[in-house]
Amino acid sequence: MDTHSSHLAASNRSRSSQSPSPSHSASASATSSIHKRKLASEDHAPPFPPSSFSADTRDGALTSNDDLESISARGGGADSDSDDESDALVDDDEEDFDNDSSMRNFTAARLDNSGASAVARNSKLKTENATVKNESSDGAKDGGGTTGTGAVGPTVAGGSVPGIMVKEDATKIFTENIQTSGAYSAREESLKREEEAGRLKFVCLSNDGIDEHMVWLVGLKNIFARQLPNMPKEYIVRLVMDRSHKSVMVIRRNHVVGGITYRPYVSQRFGEIAFCAITADEQVKGYGTRLMNHLKQHARDVDGLTHFLTYADNNAVGYFIKQGFTKEIHLEKDRWHGYIKDYDGGILMECRIDPKLPYTDLSTMIRCQRQAIDEKIRELSNCHIVYPGIDFQKKEAGVPKKIIKVEDIPGLREAGWTPDQWGHSRFGALSASTDSGRKHLTAFMRVLLKCMHDHVDAWPFKEPVDARDVPDYYDIIKDPMDLKTMLKRVESEQYYVTFEMFVADAKRMFANARTYNSPDTIYYKCSTRLEAHFQSKVQSGLQAGAKIQQ
Ligand SMILES: CC(=O)SCCNC(=O)CCNC(=O)[C@H](O)C(C)(C)COP(=O)(O)OP(=O)(O)OC[C@H]1O[C@@H](n2cnc3c(N)ncnc32)[C@H](O)[C@@H]1OP(=O)(O)O
């Protein structure tokens, strides 16, 4: 026995615990209230446009101050009660979105990092499975000029090899793993479906005086005012209503969910993102990403821009990085310097707009790429083929009931195994690959076991630990080992086909004792001393064997 009940709560014992990962949802919401982004100017209503460029020359159409003031007055009027109104609008929308259960499930799962809601997590998996199924069926429908599923593994085409099946779920496992890291496609596809169903739209507007547009712009201004509390409200109004700025907005059932206000510097072919926000209870659901994708597509196709620059709030840097922004500015300085306004507490970030990417349909592109990669893997590997299991019933001490020839194990040869690898040992002769090798190996292991058994510190290891004496032992030690079990394995002459396997069992036996027991215990000390003894015997035995062979 390698333990004692008085050491049940050994101090060196540690259990892994699942600590909740930080939730973006939490951080995103938190950032709302501690927003630090400020204009560099001390003045809370800085001159606009910034003095570094002339107001009306570059990209035209700056609204006059009169315009701004009048709009400001309208905005101001709305402003007094607009925050509430804005929130009310969002609340009203909740019902409308209930149709999209996949989105809800997904969101619930993402927001639940506490581990409390197993239901939500299951929903997430279901959603992802559903997505994968769609992918497969789409792929099948398309044909897509690619080789079909059945054509990939030559040995299994048409299921012609008896007892072998293609693991259809391999695709699922592969894609599920990808999707859990970001779940980008799932969210994008879900929002795209909402758009196609007409429940969601993305518009790009500037102050054009049309009533409906003005209502949306005021709604967006209110979201900015709430989500960017350190930004002077007057400044937000000025930029949102300024006619040289444009705003891409998410509109759900005629209400604004969020948006990005930017200024396109058409002659310089870059745009400056002034504000970006999603209303508090809709954050971290993918709107920010889809919004940015719409913005990039619009800015490229309509404004002819190649880059975006923004002073990202410290708390939002993570979001911008996920949208392809970097802190390194590659755009030539003379293209942007003097055009954009400095902000305190913000980090200048850049994003290059790809000239070709279908930004609003990235999920389809990703799906096609994933499918192509998966098919390529199937061409190059057999990992999708699942062979029937082998009948590997064990007797006592884990010794197999029936000897199975290695070459009879289904799939082993197909995986690249060759008979010369059988029983291969770095200890040369100490392997069971030949009759003489097996005898030699068994004899050596017997000697080593006897050496251990006769040692004064062997007493805790002679028998398996009795769970009646140490009730929690097998909760902690999942792979128990003892000298008696090792002896049974040696005497079976089937178990240890290499010397390494024997040494591994011995090492596990010693390690178990040190895992369960604390260093000040006799069990721990016996384990250390017996292991040293074992190692010295192995060493001298190997050296003697080597000499005999010479
Ligand atoms: C120039 C400026 O305006 S800087 C100020 C930016 N605005 C704010 O900080 C206001 C408060 N925050 C918000 O309004 C929103 O959270 C936004 C605009 C930052 C992001 O919009 P969301 O709809 O929440 O983003 P979305 O759901 O698409 O998330 C995309 C990814 O970014 C991550 N993310 C979102 N917000 C943040 C954040 N603040 N920090 C780090 N990562 C974030 C999400 O977890 C998600 O990651 P994943 O794809 O690995 O799952």
CATH top level assignment of the largest domain: Alpha Beta
Using DSSP, what is the number of strands? Answer: 10
| CATH H-level superfamily of the largest domain | Gcn5-related N-acetyltransferase (GNAT)
Content of β-strand: 5-15%
* Ligand inventory: acetyl coenzyme *A
EC number: 2.3.1.48
Region (Disordered): 1-101, 116-157
Enzyme class: transferase
Biased composition (Gly residues): 142-151
Descriptors:
binds acetyl coenzyme *A; disordered N terminus; 550 residues; two-stranded antiparallel ribbon; histone acetyltransferase; 17 helices; transcription regulation; 6-stranded mixed sheet; Aminopeptidase; Histone Acetyltransferase, Chain A; transferase; activator; elongated
How would you describe this protein?
By secondary structure, the protein is α+β, with helices and mostly antiparallel strands. It folds into 2 domains: 233 residues, Aminopeptidase; 152 residues, Bromodomain-like (Histone Acetyltransferase, Chain A). Helices cover 45% and strands 10% of the residues. It has 17 helices and 10 strands. 33% of the residues are buried. The N terminus is likely disordered. The site of acetyl coenzyme *A has 31 residues, from helix 1, strand 6, helix 9, strand 7 and helix 10. Acetyl coenzyme *A (ACO) binds next to helix 1, strand 6, helix 9, strand 7 and helix 10.
Chain-wise SSE layout:
Blueprint: H1 24-33, E1 38-39, H2 65-93, H3 101-111, H4 118-142, E2 165-166, H5 169-180, H6 184-196, E3 200-205, H7 211-227, H8 233-241, E4 246-252, E5 255-265, E6 270-278, H9 287-301, E7 307-313, H10 317-322, H11 333-336, E8 343-344, E9 346-352, H12 362-380, E10 385-386, H13 435-453, H14 473-476, H15 483-492, H16 499-516, H17 522-549
The protein binds acetyl coenzyme *A (ACO).
